[in-house]
Every structure is written in structure tokens, then in C-alpha cells.
Amino acid sequence: MATDLLNILPQLIVLVTAVTVLCLEMARRPLAGLWCLVIGMSAATGVAVDMLGTETTAFSTTFRVDALSLWAAAILSPATILFALLARAELKDQVREGTIYSLMVFAALGAMILAGSGDVMFLVLGILIGTLAGMAMAAHPRNDPSSEGAMKYFIYGSVAGAIMLFGLTYWVGLTGTTLISALINPDLSPVIVMFGFITLLAGIGYTASLFPFHFWIPDTFEGAPVSVAAYLSVVPKIGALFVLAQVVREIPVSVVDWPLILAVLAVLSMTFGNVVALWQDNVIRLLAYSTIAQSGYFLLGVIGMGQSGLAIDSLVVFGVAYALMNTGAFAITLAEGTRLDDFKGVGRRRPWHAVGMTIFLLSLVGMPPLAGFVGKFLLFGSAIESGYTWLAVIAILNSAISLAVYMRIVVPMFFQEAEEEQTKLYAPGTSFVWISTFILTIVAGIGVQWFLGGG
Amino acid sequence: MIALLLTILGPLAATVWITATRKQIGYAALTGSLASLAGSFFLFLYMIEGKIITATFAGLPNFPFRLEVTELSAVLALVVSVITTFIFIYAIGYMAEEKGKLRFWSGISLFLGAMQLLVLAGDWILFVMAWEIMGFASYLLIGTWYWKKEAGDASTKAFLMNRVADLGLYVGVFVIILTSGSSQIVAEPLQGISMAGALALLLAVMGKSAQVPFQSWLSAAMAGPTPVSALLHSATMVAAGIILLLKAFPLFSPDALIWVGTVGGVTILLTGATAVFSEDIKRMLAASTSSQLGFMVLAVGAGYPAAAIAHLIAHAFMKSSLFLGAGIFQHETGSTRYKDLGGAGKKLIVTFSGFAVAGLALAGIPPLIGFWSKDAILAAGLQADPAAWYFPAALIGAFFTAIYMGRAFGILWNGKARPDETPQRSLPWMHTGLLTLAAATAVGGLFLDPLVEEAGFSIPKGTLAMISGLVAAASGLPIGWFAPAPAFKKRIWMFFRDNYPVAGGYNRVVVQPMLALAKGFNAIETSLLQAVFVIGTAFLAIARWLSEGIDRATAYVIDSIGAFNLNIARMSSFTDDKGIVEGIAGLVDSVQRLGHYGRKMQSGLVHRELAWSVYGMVFAFIIILLTYL
């Protein structure tokens, strides 16, 4: 028991932090809550980084302590700090400011539990914690658009969750245990394994915003505060995609051809996300559709699980890269405004914001030498090694389309004049967030070799 | 090492300076290019001393970035920086009174830095990176005057076409890395590179170097300022394709080389014909660029990269001079169409002589630089297998070249000059750039041979090639000069002139379907929301009606029918034409009118969308079931 607790130390620290921040909010001390969050999450990051390389399980193999779950903790904890700083910049001195902080930590905990699930109970628990906390955050402004978005998020989540639970009960019935690793037996009835897998996809696809489970994304993002939208675009998604990787590596391809179905979803998500993003006039909506497309890229890494040596590396590296560049892009959107028109003339008004945004967007496209390129490079490599060359080709073509999407933000920044000269004020916390992600986006891109411990 | 960094980072630093300070931008760019010139000059000196400089630094795991100064890359880097420096000098005069300076100078410095990076790249990933930056910079540059529709369209066209072809580069590089296990660019032949990988690289070359069928972006790119054209068409952009071909040459098997030669030959002939029948001096030059690049591709296909290098260097000097000359004519007459340019040469005698020297060189008149390089390609064609394809293609191409240059000279010199207008531009800057480059084409022939030998190759030569090349040049020039204008205006020639508008061209085949697809998805999204509204409301009305108790039935039936009708009335007004925005506006409106209905209506949206998710799951289940069966 004691070793079990030590093995899940990062997650435990996050849990304690979440509860403490909640208590501080009850005492109406939001600033203290923020500090507590920063300290707690830094500690969780430190412990998780220190534990990297451990390969074990906790609580009789129901929770996995491996590269995926530790990296999830190492990525999501610092990311949560950045999002909390953004939230501070956006929601400072509002009533219920502190609830956001505690909900953010709870949702991060959900995602971390997901990433280490070795058991369907943990899987369901992780999705539920994440969804409930996320919904409450999305509803924070208490106006019509945000309530609508949160409502959608909630209803969608309940239905997808119910379907998933329904399917998972068949798995449990079939194998007689809730452990995911029990599925590896090739003698199980394939139709039931398939059925369970498809319903599982509904639950995970909803959390990870994969087409066709993405419908809540644009409205929820638009209604929620920018910092919450940024949070929802990163944290639950990474948790969900990592757990998908944890599940599929236990399912024999001979029983369920899951790489094929994931490949189809990847193509649909990438193409739909990029193509619809071309039509958005609102930067948040544009980024929302772009996150759908980015989920599609993630699937290339999941497909490589068990078939390509690059799969885990690619998921981790793209996870880091995605968290960095998406956070940065949302931070600058928070400072500059959410309409495309707000970005006109930023290059003249605040040249560094323009440069930063350009770097983040080019990284999202996958331009070398930025972090996004390295991630995509590994993802494509993973897909090709698994025999899905056609998928890699479609993904590359999609990267080409996505350049057109992101150029829609870059071009007005540098080459159009603002209609009226107004300088929106923004809090210094925003600058801290985008500058640190900016530096890391470039450093991570160039220094992946060290990043992966010498490859 | 410092020289290496200076060569690449000089122009990039200039870009940063220009975007950050916005002061003295022309001179800052010039300083950047001079730094690059100095850097590449030292690299060249080191290379002569026999020092090979490599620098390895961080990159992907097991695939570090490498910069490498080989014989070839040192020579090319020097050529690039020399030409660019003179084009920059010219551009200071040209852009003096134009708008869009900021975009122009920052873009063009970025462009130079990317080109040098591409030349000096020692691994494929760095190469791809430089290639992409250059593509982006060319998009900015072609669209310098983005407020003109023509310029915006041209930059989009160039960009999209190059993106399609770039796909080849990505696939090719992936194949190379996966087969060889290393991203390093090597000079030795590599075993096991599949035909498909080589052909994918060829696709990238065809896009960047404007080979048939990708030639049309190059003539559209004329919408940018002249210095941009001069740069794109000579030592950079299009040359990048050839550099890719040279770097990848060891990977091509003889089977793949035949494809390369075919692409080159077809391009020489088709775009050569386009140049002959052009009615616009810049379009003529653009088509000529494709055609001359075709010569280089052909030479590589024939198995003589030396000839391609020689022609790459020679063409860079010749074509940049020609463009700079054409730019001055354009500035003075305000047009690039032949009918407006008649006799312009007599007025601008200095410009014309610079233009003529470069043009004669391009036609292949000895002892100018073009004679030697064209001779090399003809000789390569004779020794290639099958010579029956390579040699005639090159020879006819040379003949076409002489005709279109002769025609341009004839029009510029003979035509009726328009009433005099006073020259208004800062000609000294422009003439310095033009005349220096033209002088280089005049005497460059003497240095071409040693230069290519420095690069580690030897140029093929042959008496038969030399004589036939001379005959082609000597017969083509007078034909072009004397042929009456109407001879070029027959209907059938229009087909050549307009760059083979087969099936509406590229625009119809790629751009429009892409936009239509985007529109389609958007329509699905929109109609989905509308349908959702209709179905959701009706569904909810019924659901609510059923859920109420029987005792309140009468009152309730009246209520809900009223509400239902109201909705139907609203809906019919929706479905007419409204898009997503009005749908939402209407939704808000009906929320106010129908009070408590609002929330449920929104859940109606979700209901429909959830159905879509379920369809998706069923679909996935069917697919997976099929694979099992």
C-alpha cells in the first residue's frame, strides 16, 4: 500500500493541491489559492520528472505508472500553472475567481488519472472528473453563451459517457474483470470487443474532440472565458488520447482492426477541422476547429502503439509541443481580442505579440525547426512504420491546408492596418505565459534530442 | 564557422532589424546581403584551400542538423550572394518610390537567408526547413502589392502550386530517411531508394523549378516587383529545385533519370514555344526561365550534373540582367507589353546594351557565358542515352531561345517610339545593378569552366555540339528579328502563349475543388444547424405535450399548438436563405418570445448533433465488422 501511494505521488500531490485550493476559495482567498496551485503543481511536476523512467503499476495493476502517465503529469501540471495565470489575468477580482483554480486542478487530476488507467473504473472516473470540472469552468461567466456552451458540453458528456459505460459493461461481463489488460486474450468474442471499443471511442472521442464527437467544441470554447477555452483545448485532450493509447495496446489487431478505424477518424478529424476552420471569423472558433484537426494528428501516434517504436515518443513530444503552442496562441488571443479584425495591425502596434503569434501558428502547422514540426515528424514516422503511409500522406496534405488556415491570422497582423487605433490593455501575467511558451516552443523544437534523454 | 554563420544569418538579421526598427530598411537589407557575400567569399576561399567545413548541432533524436560546405555548395553560395547583392543595389533605386517597402525588404532578406541555408544544408531536415521558409517568403514577395487583386491571386497561386509539389519533397525525404536511417545528405550513391521516392523528389523539383505542368505560377508571379522576379528567376527559388536535383542526384537510378530527362525535355519545348509567342516582355522572360530550367533538368537526366551546374550559374547571371533591363523599360514606359515597348531600346541606350549583352548570351553567342553552358548541355545530350531524345530537345530549345531573344531585340529597337517622357526614376542605382551583372555575363565565360571544376565536376564538351549550337543561335536570332508581328498572332499560337490552358488549367483542377470542398463542409455545418432547429423544436413540442398531465390537456393542447405554429412560422422564415449567423440571431429572438422554451431548444441542437455522433459510431462499427469478416 505504501509503495502504491509512492508510485502515484504526482497524482496524490495534485489531489491534495485541489482540495487545498478549494478550501482557500471557501475562505475567499483567491490569491492564496493561486499560490497554492503554483506550488503544488510545481511539486507534482518535479516529482513526475524525477520518476520518469519508472515502469510499474499501482493498486494491483489497476493504475499504470509508465512513460505515458508520468509524462502526462509532467506536461499537464506546468500547463495548469500557465492556464491558472491566464485565468488570473482574465478574471482577476471577479466573484468566484478562486473556484476556477480549484476546478482546473481537479480537471488536471482527471486527465492524469485517465493517462494512467489500467482499469475501466479509472477510465470512467477520469473522464467524469474532467468533464464535470470542465463544465463548471465553461459556465463561469454565467451569461447566455457560456451557459449554452456549458450545457452542450454537459449533455454531450452525459450521453457519450452513458454510451461508453453501456459498452464497457459488456467488456467486463466478457472478461470477468475490469482490467483493460484482460482484453489481450485473442479468444474473446470479437463482436463484443468491437462493440465495447466503439462505445469507448465515443467517450474518449468526445473528451479528445475527435470528429464526429466534436460538436460541443466551438460553442463551448466561444462561450467560455479564453483561459478556460485554452485549458479545455489542452488538458482533457492529452489525458484522453494517452488513455486511448493505453487501451489499444491491449487489444490484438487480429480481433479488432483498431488502427484502421482510428485512421479513418484521424482523416475525418484533420480534414474537417482544417477545412471548416477556413471559414471562421472568430479566432477562438478558428482555434477550436484547429484543435479538432490537431486531435487527428495525435491519432497517428496512437495507431503506432505496439507496432512502431516511435509511438510513445511521438505522443509525448507532440503532447508537449501541442500544449506549448496552443497555450501560447490562446494567451496572445487573450491579450489581443477574439475577432480576426482585432488582429489587424498588431505587427505595428505590438510587434513582439505578432512575432510570437506567428511562431505559435507556424508551429501548429508543423514548420521546422519549431516544436510542432518535431512532434508531427515523429507522428508521421510512427504511422509510416505501422504501415499507414497513405495516412501520413493525407496528414502532410492537411498540414498544407492548415497553413492557409493559420495565415488568416498572420496576414492581418502584418499587412493590414487597424481601423481604429486602440490599444487593449492586458495583464502582465499574460506576457509571462506567452513568453515562456514562446521560448520553449523554439527550444523544444531544436533540442528534442536532449528532451528525449539523448533519443 | 563564422563565415558560415555570416552567410546565413546576415540576411536573417537584416530581416529582424527591418521588421523591428523600420528604419533605413533598404540599406539594412543591403548590409545583410553584403555580410552574406563576405561570408560566402570566405567559404569559397576555404574551399579552394581544401578545407571542408561542417557544423553539426541539435536536431531530432539521431538526426542532428548539419551545415556543410562542399565544393558545390561553396560555389553556389557565392553565386547566390553576388547576384542578390546586385539585385539589392538595383532594388534600392526601383523601390524608392513604390509602396510596400516594408514587406518587400523584409521578405527579400528572409528569402536570401533561406536560400543560403538551403544551399549549405547538409541534412534533409534543414533542407526542408529552408525550402519552406523560401516558399513562405516568395508568397510574401509576389504579393508585395497585395492590394492589387492580380498580385494577391498570383501569390496564392504560386503558393498553392508549390504546396502541392512540396508534398513530393516530404514524401521523398521520408523515404530517404526511412531507407538510409540517416538524414544526412550524402554524395555517394545510396542503395535501395525506391523509384517512388526518387519520383516524389522529382515532383518537388517540378513545382519549384516551374517545369511542365507547374509552369504557370512563374508567369503569374510577374505581378510582384521586378527585383523579386529577377531574384526568383535567377539564382534562388527556381534554382532551389535544381539544387535539390543536384543534391539528390546520387539517389537516382538510371530508370528514374529517364523520367527526369523527359520532364526537362518536354518543358524546354513547351515553354520555349510559349516564350516565342508571348506578347509581353516579362511573360516572355518567365516562360524562358521555365525553358532554361528545363535545360538543367535535362542535363541532370542525361547524367551530367556538371552541365546543369554550369548552366545554373550562367543562367542566373543572364536572367537577372534581363529582368533588371526589362524592369527599367517597364519603369520608363509604364508597361511590359510589346506593343507599348516599341523603340524603347533606342531611348534607353544604356539599358538596351545591358539587356542585349545578356540576351545574346542566353541565345548562345560566343564568347558570352551562355555559349559555354549551352554547349555543355548539348554535348551532354549527345552523350546521353537515348541521345535521339536528349539532343534534339536541347537543340530545338536553343533554337527557340534564339528566336524569342531576337524578337525581343527587334521590337525594342525597331518599333515606333512613343512620345518622349522624361525619365523620372533613380536610374544610377538601377544601372549599377544591371550593368555589373551584364558585364559578368560578358566575361563570365572565361571563369565558368574553372568555377565548375572547383565545384568538383568537369563540363562535357564536343565539337559537334558547339557547331550545332552556333547554327541554332545564328539562324534563330534573325528569324526572331525579322519575322513580322502578325506571324505571332495566329489563333493557334494563343494556345502556346497562354501557357496551355488545358481544362481551365491548374486553377480549375486543384484550387477550385479545394475551395468547393471547404464550402461543402461549411454548408453541411450550416444546414445541420438549420435542420436541427426545425426537427428539434418539433420534437420538443411533442415531447412536452406528452409529458403533461391529462387533466390539463385541453389548455395545454391549445398552448402547445399555438407555440408550435409560432415556431413553424419562424422556421419557414429561417429556412429561406439564412446562414448560421441569422439562425443564431433567430434562436435568441425566439428565446425571448417563447420564454421557457429557450433552454430546451438548445438541447434540441445537441440532440441532433448527438444523433450524428451515433451515426458515426454505427459507421465505425460497420467498418470494423467488415474488416473482421
Distinctive features:
heterodimer; A: 2 domains; two-stranded antiparallel sheet; 19 helices; globular; B: 629 residues; mainly alpha; two-stranded antiparallel ribbon
Descriptive notes:
The complex is a heterodimer of chains A (455) and B (629). Chain A has 455 residues and is an all-alpha fold. Chain A folds into two domains: 1-256; 259-455, no CATH class. Helices cover 75% and strands 1% of the residues of chain A. Chain A has 19 helices and two strands. In chain A, strand 1 (56-58) and strand 2 form a beta hairpin. The longest helix of chain A has 32 residues, at 144-175. Chain A is globular and about 70 Å long. The two termini of chain A are 34 Å apart. Among the domains of chain B are: 257-419 and 445-500, no CATH class; 522-628, no CATH class. Chain B has a two-stranded antiparallel sheet. The termini of chain B are far apart. The model of chain B is unreliable at 502-506 and 572-604 (pLDDT under 50).
